[in-house]
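FAQ: What does a multi-protein file look like?

Like this. Sequence, then tokens, then the next protein.
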Amino acid sequence: MTDLDDTLRAQLGRVLDKTAFTRMAGRGELTRYDGKVRDCYIDKAKGERVIVVTDRLSAFDVVIGLIPFKGQVLNQMAQHWFAETAHVAPNHVVSSPDPNVVIARETRPLAVELVMRSYLTGVTSTSIWKAYEQGARTFCGHALPDGMKKNDRLPRPILTPSTKAPKGGHDISVSKDELLAMGQVTPAEFEQAAAIAERLFAFGQARAAERGLILADTKYEMGVLPDGTVIVIDEIHTPDSSRYWYADDYEARLARGEEPRSLDKEYVRRWLAEEAKYAGDGPPPPLPDDVRVEAARRYIKSFELVTGRAFEPDTREPVARIAAALGAS
């Protein structure tokens, strides 16, 4: 067993499931909101949001387990990309005082996920591949050619908006016209957000190619500042929001009808779908330790390949460490 394996297995009992802070140094009243992966503490007086990125793993719109160091990888990779793309689009980052924490500007989140796709792929019931396999030749308003195979490259990158379902619900892919008809996003906000998504995706794909990777698809979340400016929030180009494949054997595996080698949580989705026969309905099955460790290894490998830096895990008990960094209790 390698040193990394030993570290990952030792961390299985020290994963960050949740936090429950009620106060933080230098802050007044906090409003608490928990997402699938993040615990958020909103400081309305300062116009800031303290985001704790946990080790929870979400797939099929359900929290399915805890992966060692996932929160650290996710947050640090997001911070890498936010810094790299600051000249491409404004974002919400103020600071990152702990490996699992980012302090961000508070915004009014847009009620849409901006999903950019370059490949005909996916395993969920709402994926572009499942729609195509069932005979659809239009997806979110985009015409798709006949004769394509799973994991083929699309003729061009496309934006496929998705609704943001309440906690416990399922997101739905929609066209631009359908989204605007819902009235939750204005045409001006959508145009700003779409332009940002397209620029970021092009930048991310170019950077990934330099590292021997394919950024097959990704999702962005946007928020609106009080002055009406649309900025990027949440995360960017992480293994949770993005599908990364190795470029060197993509063509050969495609020709053999094999799945591309992936760096993202698609590994866990496939295990759930193929081994556990689970697709998001009902409570998820427990993830075996071997699956959790392999998922963690892939998250770390993704960080190192994409950033070009070695991942340095902080193995201290996470809640106490984060509380000390934030002066929280």
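And here is the next protein:
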Amino acid sequence: MRGERFLQSLDDGRSVWLEGKRVESIRQHPAFRGTLSTIRDLFDTLDDPALRDQVGYKAEGREPYAHSAFLVPYTAEQLAQRSRSFAFWSAQTHGMMSRLSDYARSIVTGWYAARRRLNELDPGFERKITAYYEHARDHDLFLTTAIIDPQIDRSGSLDDSRIADRYLHVVRETEDGIIVRGAKMIATGAPYTHDFIIYSFLKFEAKDASHAHVLIVPANSPGLHIVCRESFADAREQNHPLSARYDEMDAVLFFDDVLVPWERVLLYGDAEKVLALRANRTANALAFHQNVVRYVAKLEFITGVTFAVAESIGVTGFLHIQEKLGELLTQIEVIKALVIASETQAKPDESGVLVPELSYIETARSIGTKFYPRAVEILQQVGGGGFVQAPSGVEDFYGPISGLMHLYFEGAAVSAEKKVQLFKLAWDLIGSPLGARHELYERFYAGDPMRAYANLYNSFDKDRLVDPVWRLLKETSKGRIAPVL
């Protein structure tokens, strides 16, 4: 099964650091064991005859199924296949794992789909992206991105050597490739990825040539150090069911003179070309589409938890609770409608690839930064003090005071033990370190939400909305309303 092959592939000498120590075995370490078990099971769905058609597709000339993130959609059915695949994996993880590789895989697929047009940026681009796309597809590579520069001094710029020297940049060229030095963040899934998709969100100028690049970097590259945040994994699954399974590790990458082979250097040295590739509509639409499909699953999950909490304590009959629960349903329906709109209004790009309508996807990503924090707030309001009155563990139901536990923790519609399990799950979602991380993630994973709204305004065809206003006023000033007889 390919899930086990995935785990074995991580023993490749990569340099992963956690709590000041280098991790000797990723798959044996308790910080990663639960998450890797989840990913292994997801990878195995591609080998399961009952599930593989929901997750994958048969690439031409290839016998095993490939994940549908690698499917280039030319028809509505192929676009729907991608959507079903994203939805299936997201449902299996309740939307709690946002970087299961299908996002970064979709970026690569988008660049591959637009390869002939993008070859104008560099004569070697088509050859390089084709070779990499086929390699990643055929070897089930796990991919993630690292596109943010470290927070050193946001008031500065690349004119400041303190910043320029620490942002990822090329220090020299060699016959084999380029040598890069600096740091990147936030690489979610970094300890167990195969390759990193590397570029920057900076607005480059021509003088910033050493910082302008798009790279694909193997995780086990000599000189590359993966520095993890604190682990939120918890082996006590009954008390922390989400933290035990779904802690996607985030990391900062240190590049200590890392060689990137020329075949993995997609672009380098031309700021305008890097910006053009970064803005490629085909790749962005295919990748961001996965973001929003996954987000539906997460909203459905937190809504389900909130409904269950409300029912367990008998508050669903109160109007102010019904209003809040209805608001959660509205959130789901809004995002689902935007997904459907993006798919039904998809149009072929210059290469004939059926691309989801990006305006709807961007809208969903923008309002999503407000929806999830609001959903967390509603769950907090519904459960109230019940979240902090839950006992330390379900083990208390089997101790000397078990009779009192069953008496005083009983719910309106569920047993005391089930109610405590439910509140433990809800707390893991909203009050644990993992829960806090997820709220922060949903606020900022798509970038600065303020800038996203501003970009929407700046790029919008404003005359389409403003011109009718002036026409109405012009007609009014001329007195063109006909008299009523």
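Q: Is there any per-entry metadata?
A: Some entries carry free-text notes. For the entry above: Residues 281-312 form the longest helix (32 residues).
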